[in-house]
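Folds abound. Consider this:
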Amino acid sequence: MKLLIADDHPIFRKGLIDILEIAFPKITIIECKDGKEALMKIKKEKPSISILDINMPELSGLEVSSIVTKEKLPTRVIILTMYRDREMVKKAMKTGAYSYILKDFAATEIIDCIEKVSADKKYVSTELQAFYLDFVQEDKKKQEMLNKLKKLSQAELKTLKLVCNHKSTKEIAEVLFLSDKTIENYRSKICQKLQLPPRNNSLMLWISENKDLLLEISEF
């Protein structure tokens, strides 16, 4: 197994390497002191797993992870950090990282983590499991919403976007050069495809409840 470790603290890198070399005698380890060097060596050496600190010079671990995902580079990212908050876990996993480990527990969790990631499984430090489960649920909800939005026609999708911008039926009709009746028909079909209850305010209520997720969906 070829593995890359990127951290700007040489003492921490050395301690982690000692643990890994004992646990995986046949491992090949690539060391990097910053994010730019890490990205360059990921592209050149193609390690199966890359362990990245979040805070590094040149490029952060999250920036490197995002590039790895965007360019479909053949490495699975493990984020190693001191950050324990929900938003950082969410942000890291959204970059496409496979794992999020707290440095405080790296010595006891890194081996299990690498084995899980090698088997194409996600791994998050035990202390942060609740945050990760929240992310999974939110991601599932977003995917379900995206699947429903894909059922809308282009005309219905344009109408929904204008409704999201608080345009009235009359204003939407003027923008799309259609009749009020046609827009009302589109709104009705949107509610049906989104499986909303037959109430006058159901669409606006749905938009209000899902505003943040709608903004995250680039296709929308």
The chain has a mean pLDDT of 90.
